[in-house]
Amino acid sequence: MISRDALIMRHASEVRRRIESYGDLFKELHVLVVGGNLGSIQVIRAGSLKNVVIHYMGKSSIWSLFKAYRKSINIFNSKKGDSLVVTTQDPFETGLVGWLLKKRLGVVWQAQIHTDFNSVFFKKESLKNRVRVLLASFILPLADSIRVMSNRIKKSLIEKNNINKSIIKVLPVWIDFNSKKGIKKIKVADDKFVILMASRLTKEKNIEMAIKVLGGVARKYMNVLMVIVGEGKEKNNLEKLAADLNLKKHIMFEGWQDDLRAYFKRADLYLLTSLYEGYGRTVLEAVYNKVPVVMTDVGVAGEIIKDRESGRVVPVYNRILLEKALLDLIKDGEARGKYSNEAFNSLKIMTKNEYLEAFKNSLDL
Questions:
Q1: Of the residues 16, 48, 98, 352, which has the maximum number of CB atoms within 10 A of its CB?
Q2: 84-97 tens-digit pLDDT
Q3: Which is higher by pLDDT, 285 or 37?
């Protein structure tokens, strides 16, 4: 497995626990991490059977990707005779490594797609993303299987990349809704109407628009409070924007939290304003906690959250309709209850064992 998620190196992280659980499925699992800035190369043995080996290749660079390629060759050459497969976190840089390994060694290659790279907003974000889209368009048709997070991505691959639907498997990342973590207490006055947001604070999450819309909402409902959970490069800009718009008393920046249950427990509404999403994990967590959702038309919108049936869905970047949706739900408690119940009833929850079996099947082993 070749991944760019440096959280795999953190012992207590959720992604680390998920990776370790994959060890029960295979004779041996090697995870090559490209990304983060963790210093010298580390090798960690983990998993319930101690058959998961995590290799840190260094911070994201062409050199680190090359090291991952060479390391993979060494691992595969030492395992001749076994059923060999490589799965890559994306169809971009790590996907290129997966394709090269397939071409050189004849191993099975699965490309995972965690984001909607066919979104026009993904392409517009940077020159790097436009190059990534071109790369994915070239190598994805050569994959043995493709795992995607949502039906939205599957549909876009079929329509825009001419991918055979038979090799596309829809399997979101498993969420442990019954985690035994301790619940943090948050202090928010009882009279506040809490709009919760939880994500990385990056450009594509478009929290800037949410804050601007909050200005209009707060003029009509003085007791509204937006709680923003997360960290990222945009945090300082977002805090400055809140101050410039005189919204500091209407916004709480809570930083990164491993456990969101206390926040969902207190939230009256969950808001997601992303420009693009592969899935929208926090939306599912909100649904499970019966918090009504307002979101842009990304990820699971139209699949789990259907406009005016199980939540509110507004076009990306449409501030007018977003403000109207928020105002409508703030004043309509009956609609909030209806939407949260409808969304919860449509939620299909996998057990951990069911997910692991589905993951193995997605590799076509």
A1: 98
A2: 899 999 999 999 99
A3: 285
State the average pLDDT over residues 244-271.
93
- Extended beta strands in the chain, E state: 2-3, 29-34, 43-46, 52-58, 85-88, 108-113, 145-148, 168-170, 193-198, 224-229, 251-255, 269-272, 293-296, 312-314
Residues 11, 12, 18, 23: is their CA dihedral positive or negative? Answer: positive
Task: Report DSSP state, residue 54.
Answer: E
For residue 311, what is the DSSP state? B
| pLDDT for 327 | 97
In degrees, rounded to 5, the angle at the alpha carbon of residue 258 between the alpha carbons of residues 190 and 5 is 145
Q: How confident is the model at residue 49 (pLDDT cuts 50, 70, 90)?
A: low
Joined together, the tokens standing for residue 336 give 């909030």
Long-range contacts of 254-259 (CB under 8 A, 24+ apart): 254/186, 254/227, 254/228, 254/229, 254/230, 255/229, 255/230, 255/231, 256/229, 256/230, 256/231, 257/184, 257/198, 257/229, 258/12, 258/14, 258/181, 259/179, 259/181, 259/182, 259/183, 259/184
CB atoms within 10 A of CB 249: 10
> What domains does the chain contain, in order, with CATH numbers?
2-178+351-362 (3.40.50.2000), 193-346 (3.40.50.2000)
- Conformational region of residue 354, where left means phi above 0, alpha means psi within -120 to 50, and beta covers everything else: alpha
Given this model, what pLDDT does residue 180 score? 58
pLDDT interval class at 365 (50, 70, 90): low
- φ/ψ of 91, rounded to 5, equals -95, 20
Distance, CA of 325 to CA of 334 (rounded, Å): 14
